[in-house]
Amino acid sequence: MGIPHPSGGGGCQLSDSQRIELSRHFVQRRRADVKDWLGDTTPFPERESLEYAYALSPEYRLLFDSVFEFARGLVQGITPDLSYAKQRGRYWSALAIVLCVMSSPAAAVATLTRSALKQKTESEEELVDELSAPFVYDGAEGEGIVDSTPTAIVDRGQSSYKDSQRKQLREFVRIAEILTGSKDRKLQSAIALVKHLLAQGYNPIVWCRYIATANYVAKGLTNELDTKKSPTRIIAITGEQSEDEREIRIQELKSHERRVMVATDCLSEGVNLQEHFTAVIHYDLPWNPNRLEQREGRVDRYGQRAEKVKCILTSVRVKEISL
User: Fold this and answer.
1) pTM, whole model, 2 decimals?
2) What are residue 135's phi and psi, to 5 degrees?
3) d(CA 86, CA 81)
4) Would you tell me which of 12, 105, 111, 143 could form a disulfide with 176, CB atoms 3.0–4.6 Å apart?
């Protein structure tokens, strides 16, 4: 008979008394416990955690303020005559729109470019929360996280939009398409950070939330750094590729002296990257802070040969956003 998982996985839920009993036999070894073990020293890198704040361009700030007010209006406009599914759909739609606009212009365009609204089945309406959460939230575990943009959530929410609101979304798309490249200070800040890290001898991973953002950032970095005369190689690893394809691309990247990988959270668990990378940039910040540790744990772990790894949070200066 197997021992049930303490989280209740595998269909088995533990009572409080069972959890207490199990805790008496639970052994946890942390880094501090094995760093000096039996007279031998286990080499671990020093982690330097930094925060880098960037300012939104005036144009991007105006877009974000407009989108935030739009999202606020979606929620405030919920009325009792809407079905439960439409009410929840509005909440999820508001979250998805704000999150993608702050991720990148590419994610905004991919999310807000409305595809044909498909007929929803009854089960889809009933499971609106379960279907929407993986596109927006980050669970404690990697399973269930979706790195494609939440277009389906916005589509579902639009079933209760007014024509004027749909028109606003089209205008947001038009503006986002203009705010790429030099007008996107988030991207420009990331490019400057990557250049600085490479000059210091670090090989960074840039973590993004959505496929559209990862490809957009990789393209921006490639245009700046991956030239014929440059020894730097940049690739994007996302949920678009199979596990075999990801492994092939990572192996190919290893042969380059200076390397940058732009990745989504499809790689944030179960993949050891400490032999190839020595720095982390959080381009998008996850809802769940555990995700930060899981990302950083790809490089800050046993087997890392660098004495120091750098982990950098990128964030908007608070005064630049009016909420």
Assistant:
1) 0.81
2) -80, -20
3) 10
4) 105
Instruction: Give the number of other CB atoms < 10 A from CB of residue 192.
Output: 14
Residue written as tokens 């974000």?
64
- Asked if residues 148 and 210 have their Cβ atoms less than 8 Å apart, the reply is yes
pLDDT tens digit sequence for 199-214: 999 999 999 999 999 9
Alpha-carbon distance of 269 to 287, in angstroms, equals 16
Q: How many residues belong to the chain? A: 323
Which residue is associated with the tokens 């959505």?
210
Q: Which one, of 34, 271, 235, lies nearest residue 142 by Cα?
A: 271
What span, in angstroms and rounded, lies between the C-alpha atoms of 197 and 191? 10
Phi/psi-derived region of residue 193, left when phi > 0, alpha when psi is between -120 and 50, beta in every other case: alpha
Query: Which residues, 6 or more positions from 319, have their beta carbon under 8 angstroms from its beta carbon?
Result: none
Q: Are the C-beta atoms of 90 and 74 separated by less than 8 Å?
A: yes
